[in-house]
């Protein structure tokens, strides 16, 4: 795993943000909002008490250790890996250059991590019921992080690292602090699409790392779709051989999938795979004969294919074998079964489908045929002892669902009405409708994501308890390895002046002069976008001061840059440490 961590570090761009001692921008003209009393904490913990009393930390003597009372110890590789990772985050330069053996004064010498429950869950996979709560007490000479389970310890380690700041000489300090923290929602996800454009493993790992920094805990892996089938199945290898963009270079092997799942586990992140049917399956049909419905033009086949063919027994034989494999490869308790955007036109054109509809008494209501397919698929998945998630169209189309189905709301601006309807029917729900990050806009677009209140719909307290969280989604039509990370975590302000009118100050290259406006002009500043969703899903519902969030978010963005998440270039300029490739 150490090699994996080094590999991930290597692949990320090392970009240094020109910042003040607490990660803020020096030369960028922005509204004067003042420093937040919470420094650079993101997402904001539930309860924070910070003192002005400051303690020094030394890279020579400081260490993260297991508390004597802790139920976990040296054998817990999850925590030991996290200790090393966060030690390097806090002291990046001293660790890279080698520690100076000269003894340095430090008033906080240790962070002791105390897992309080008998079962630390160190060797488990995170689950929908994982306890991520923790308490953090920073004092001299020892700081203490207490958590019932390792998942809370991981979140607390991130918070501790965010409390550390440095002066202009690089000396590290931390203030006396008391924190009690837990997530508001249990499901805080990020969807990435690896079908429309193949995502190299290194890009996925890099974003899992960034997810942990923002306390996301679910990687929703939309792994296959119409354009390509990059998942390499052991049971049906022809699916990726025929359906992937390339059968060797653009696939995820079983060992690749295993590595991604383990990398995520070590950061307290679940990996929920999505295999969307009966629509979005064009790539499936390339490797599996007779799986898709032949479309007709009049009385003759048109040569094209539609959704999965729901009237053949061979379809369900295939699905049973395929999902049996998927259930063993992906250890999470849930599989996302999709079910969205099913085009009925091909079914309507097919004479065999028409005959089947008449035999079943479905008339011309093809949503009943969809329901027939979905119900049989749910029965198949149930035999694997997995739970399942589906997109909202399934319930919108009147499909009869099992009571433990999780409904994923994603459509339109009236998501409050959909949440009300779905929860009124008694279904557990997750929300994505207001958090589609592939919709690009200029300016302070992070604020629209930040201001969303997931429980703003009309409903009883019991209904609102059924909303277990949400996901930010980044679909892959216009996203690949070159721009996924910047687009996910950054959105640029629109320049106030036209590029052709700008001239650079020789004395300060980062500041520009507009020859038309006769004013100083500044390059646009990137805004972390997914981070805004992260705080909305973690922090208390009353945390909604955008001025305070702005102050913390600027500093948090620079911390992510310092740790290696690359920001795309926004204007002519340079970085002190340029990207050197991988």
TrEMBL record:
Gene that this sequence comes from: HEXB
Its function, per the record, reads: Hydrolyzes the non-reducing end N-acetyl-D-hexosamine and/or sulfated N-acetyl-D-hexosamine of glycoconjugates, such as the oligosaccharide moieties from proteins and neutral glycolipids, or from certain mucopolysaccharides. The isozyme B does not hydrolyze each of these substrates, however hydrolyzes efficiently neutral oligosaccharide. Only the isozyme A is responsible for the degradation of GM2 gangliosides in the presence of GM2A. During fertilization is responsible, at least in part, for the zona block to polyspermy.
What CDD domains does the database record attribute to this sequence? Answer: GH20_HexA_HexB-like (cd06562)
> Which Gene Ontology cellular component terms are annotated?
cortical granule; lysosome; membrane
Subcellular localization, per the record? Answer: Cytoplasmic vesicle, Secretory vesicle, Cortical granule; Lysosome
EC identifiers of the protein: 3.2.1.52
Catalytic reaction annotation: N-acetyl-beta-D-6-sulfogalactosaminyl-(1->4)-alpha-L-iduronyl-(1->3)-N-acetyl-D-6-sulfogalactosamine + H2O = alpha-L-iduronyl-(1->3)-N-acetyl-D-6-sulfogalactosamine + N-acetyl-D-6-sulfogalactosamine; Hydrolysis of terminal non-reducing N-acetyl-D-hexosamine residues in N-acetyl-beta-D-hexosaminides; N-acetyl-beta-D-galactosaminyl-(1->4)-beta-D-3-sulfogalactosyl-(1->4)-beta-D-glucosyl-(1<->1')-ceramide + H2O = a beta-D-3-sulfogalactosyl-(1->4)-beta-D-glucosyl-(1<->1')-ceramide + N-acetyl-beta-D-galactosamine; beta-D-GalNAc-(1->4)-alpha-L-IdoA-(1->3)-beta-D-GalNAc-4-sulfate-(1->4)-alpha-L-IdoA-(1->3)-D-GalNAc-4-sulfate + H2O = alpha-L-IdoA-(1->3)-beta-D-GalNAc-4-sulfate-(1->4)-alpha-L-IdoA-(1->3)-D-GalNAc-4-sulfate + N-acetyl-D-galactosamine
Query: What protein is this chain from?
Result: Beta-hexosaminidase
Gene3D superfamilies noted in UniProt: Chitobiase/beta-hexosaminidase domain 2-like, Glycosidases
Active-site positions, per UniProt? 341
């Amino acid at each position: 795993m150490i090699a994996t961590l080094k590999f991930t570090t290597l692949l990320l761009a090392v970009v240094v943000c020109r910042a003040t001692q607490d990660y803020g921008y020096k030369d960028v003209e922005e509204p004067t909002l003042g420093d937040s009393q919470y420094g650079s904490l993101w997402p904001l913990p539930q309860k924070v008490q910070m003192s002005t009393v400051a303690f020094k930390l030394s890279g020579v003597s400081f260490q993260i250790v297991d508390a004597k009372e802790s139920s976990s110890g040296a054998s817990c590789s999850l925590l030991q890996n996290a200790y090393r990772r966060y030690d390097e985050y806090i002291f990046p330069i001293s660790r890279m250059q080698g520690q100076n053996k000269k003894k340095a004064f430090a008033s906080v010498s240790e962070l002791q991590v105390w897992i309080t429950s008998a079962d630390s869950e160190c060797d488990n996979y995170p689950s929908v019921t994982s306890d991520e709560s923790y308490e953090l007490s920073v004092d001299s000479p020892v700081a203490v992080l207490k958590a019932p389970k390792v998942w809370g310890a991981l979140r607390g380690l991130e918070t501790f690292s965010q409390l550390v700041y440095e002066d202009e000489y690089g000396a590290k300090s931390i203030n006396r602090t008391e924190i009690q923290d837990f997530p508001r929602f249990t499901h805080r996800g990020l969807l990435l699409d690896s079908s429309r454009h193949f995502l190299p493993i290194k890009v996925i790992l890099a974003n899992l790392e960034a997810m942990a920094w923002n306390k996301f805990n679910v990687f929703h892996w939309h792994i296959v779709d119409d354009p390509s089938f990059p998942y390499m199945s052991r049971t049906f290898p022809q699916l990726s051989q025929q359906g992937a963009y390339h059968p060797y270079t653009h696939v995820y092997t079983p060992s690749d999938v295993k590595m991604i799942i383990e990398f995520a586990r070590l950061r307290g992140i679940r990996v929920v795979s999505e295999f969307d049917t009966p629509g979005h399956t064009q790539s499936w049909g390339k490797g599996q004969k007779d799986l898709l419905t032949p479309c007709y033009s009049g009385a003759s086949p048109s040569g094209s294919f539609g959704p999965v063919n729901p009237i053949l027994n061979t379809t369900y034989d295939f699905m049973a074998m395929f999902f049996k494999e998927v259930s063993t490869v992906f250890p999470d308790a849930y599989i996302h079964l999709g079910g969205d955007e099913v085009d009925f036109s091909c079914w309507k054109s097919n004479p065999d489908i028409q005959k089947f509809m008449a035999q079943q008494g479905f008339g011309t209501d093809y949503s009943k045929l969809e329901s027939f397919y979905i119900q049989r698929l749910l029965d198949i998945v149930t035999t694997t002892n997995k739970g399942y998630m589906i997109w909202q169209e399934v319930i919108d189309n009147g499909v009869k669902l099992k009571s433990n189905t999780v409904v994923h709301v994603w459509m339109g601006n009236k998501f409050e009405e959909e949440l009300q309807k779905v929860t009124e029917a008694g279904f557990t729900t997750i929300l994505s409708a207001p958090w589609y990050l592939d919709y690009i806009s200029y300016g302070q677009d992070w604020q629209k994501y930040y201001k969303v209140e997931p429980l703003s719909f009309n409903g009883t307290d019991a209904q609102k308890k059924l909303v277990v969280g949400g996901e930010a989604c980044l679909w892959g039509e216009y996203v690949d390895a070159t721009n996924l990370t910047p687009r996910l975590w950054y959105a640029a302000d629109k320049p106030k002046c036209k590029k052709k009118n700008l001239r650079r100050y020789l004395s300060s290259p980062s500041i520009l002069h507009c020859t038309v406006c006769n004013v100083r002009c500044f390059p646009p500043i990137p805004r972390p976008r997914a981070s805004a969703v992260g705080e909305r899903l973690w922090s208390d519902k009353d945390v909604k001061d955008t001025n305070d969030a702005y102050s913390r978010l600027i500093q948090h963005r620079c911390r992510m840059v310092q740790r290696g998440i690359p920001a795309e270039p926004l204007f002519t300029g340079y970085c002190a440490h340029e990207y050197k490739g991988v």
